[in-house]
Amino acid sequence: MLPCLSGILTLTAVTLTQGAAPDAGIAKVTIRTNGGTVRVELTAPALTLVGFAGDPGNTVQRDDLKLAAENLQSGDALVRFNTQARCLLESTKVDADPRMRQGTADLGASYRFGCALPGELHSAAIGLFVGFPALRQVHVHYTTAQGQGAAIATPSNPIVNFIPLH
After folding, report:
1. CA angle, residues 30, 33, 38, in degrees to nearest 5
2. What's the CA dihedral at 49, 51, 53, 55 to 10 degrees?
3. Could you report the per-residue pLDDT of 68-121, keeping only the tens digit for each?
4. Residue 139 lies inside a defined structural domain of this protein
5. What is the pTM of this model?
6. Domain range for residue 136?
7. How many structural domains comprise the chain?
């Protein structure tokens, strides 16, 4: 189970309601399959995941950033594919640097899963909401052998079914 970043919940909730950027509270996930390999890319505003952007200014922010990095490291808890596909996490790469780069301060992670039965891959449960309580939506774009599609996962509806749009 992922620890909750409750120490930043209040700060982030206040920030999100005071005219924050339109993508505050929203993460983006891209899922791409290639045979039995599934690659997942996650990006989200640092403000959404840790409650601040830029260098950590105090011990609380450093601790929140460390906890966020630990949460992002557990990719198989953040994105869980339907069990019939028998997918296992093979590698994780986390970018937990909240400094501004090219006009944004995003955190992110990349995951690679190996699926024993890729033809059975039909859905993913997005578990990001547990460890990141300021997250309101996850915009998921996916490409599978059956086609491409998109969906929006929310805390009350975290399951994404891979129903290709084209």
Report:
1. 80
2. -100
3. 999 999 888 999 999 999 999 999 999 999 888 877 899 999 999 999 999 999
4. yes
5. 0.84
6. 6-161
7. 1
